[in-house]
Queue: 2 jobs
Job 1
Amino acid sequence: MSRKPFGDSPGPGVPVEASGRRPMTRRQFLKRGAAAVFGAGLLAGGYAWKGEPNRLEITRRELPLKELPSSFAGTKLVHFSDVHLGFNKDTRDLARLVKHIREEQPDLICFTGDIVDSYAEDLTDSVSILAELEAPLGKYAILGNHDYKNTELLTSLLAKSGFTVLRNQSYLIKQGGAVIAVAGLEDLLHGKPDPVAALKGVPDGCCTLLLMHEPDYADTAEGYPFHLQLSGHSHGGQIRLPFIGAPFTPYGSHKYIEGLYYTENKAMPVYVNRGFGETSLPLRFLCRPELTVLTLRRE
């Protein structure tokens, strides 16, 4: 008596692979492909929501400035931006950022706007955390476009945390018989930036660092005696795609989006920090939050 082999046997007319398995049908292929795409989407979505926004990247680089006095050579400048407290970031997130900044032992700290996402009151519980930051050459801040709902309260809270808030103003820093200036402008979208007012009292030829929230303003700023612009605002696009980059950036950051640039006419360096927080969507993809550490050198 003949016996059938164990397992399924193909019906008549159904081809069998050399391994003895049936070939995958088109319908099976499409179903499995759809499941793979759906699974990858879930993984990418989870990473963009819960993963990447919490993966701070610390960018360290040396930056030569030919106007920098020799007594300031080697100055470690820490630059952060766009915290957006009250949206996808809270006091615990800010405490984590402050810890990283303190570990860098900065000489100079610069913040380039959007400390809150909407309401100045969202900064209240974080004043003591920001007050933990120390820098022998000072802590300086400007306002971003999200900071204009109650500028008086917000400016007061930043001042209580030890920051000098520059609104079309400058501050002179003296060291070793030399001086540099830190200037800060009002926001381009909700304020009235006035570089002439900001430079009032700055000596001719003085190396001047400019804090300006919107990076594209650099093409205007290079017409004035500024020697470095630090900006935020763009978030680096917040969502970046392979081979494409950022499909969307806000007005004021279409040209300068992330990292170091030099303006076309005077080659003024512009550094755009990708920001610490998020806005509009609590997501980041291929665009990690950033803390920038610049060591200033004489060119």
Job 2
Amino acid sequence: MSHLRTALHLAAAGVPVLPLRAGKAPFGNCRTCAHNVCGGRPNMKSAGPCRCPGVCHAWAAATTDPAVLSSPTWTAAWRRAVSVAYHPGAAGVTVVDLDNSAAVAWARETLPATCVVETTRGEHWIYRGAMSSHNAVRPGVDVKSTMSYARWLGPGTGTMTALPDAVRALAAKEPSVVRRAPQATAVPAQAGDRECRHRTPAYLDRGIAMAEQRITEARNAVHSTVYRTFLAVLSAHGRCGCLTDVHIARLFTAAQAKGESPRHCTDAWTNARTRLGL
């Protein structure tokens, strides 16, 4: 099993890895962790804390533990895998995914040289240092680091350099694939000195749990269900600053367990924000 051998080699070097199934998609939540009943919550700085026996929680399943990678459940997944992926942020790197020749030409003119890995249609430019992940920061360009995964396509060529401000600045730009919406002024959810009710853990957690359940129970039109659910969550909680990366990760994990790609999740979230003028 060449994929497992590659995974073990990368894990020994400190790179958290996971198998990808057909369509370059991660394996979704196992039955044990449906609805996140295991309590696993992926976080921004490491691979996921889930301790279930399955290849679970999508990108957050990435691990460097050889015992996990070689376990019977994971071995079965490696047999079905079409490629090896890794969690760039947990490995301390950021991947600028250039999806076509035009994007590559832009990078060569704009970004500092670094380690380059050829892909099917373009190149991965890999920098030392982690940041938040963002899709479609410009035409044909994604930034993959924390809460994301990238295919392992070899060590590449060139010397890896530090993550430049030019890449960090890409995250501040509005994705080019999303239409611009009129700006809306955020209104405080509650005036006075009293605590915003959205910040009450029980209220917010109940809302997120209901959203996870709605996505998980979708039997068809999954993409539309994910978008409508994201829209509902943002309508209730998007203007008071209560949503955290952990809450968003829970929603993305539920969507990816239903077959949505990280890019589809990010696009649906961004489009919902744009619809609401956030």
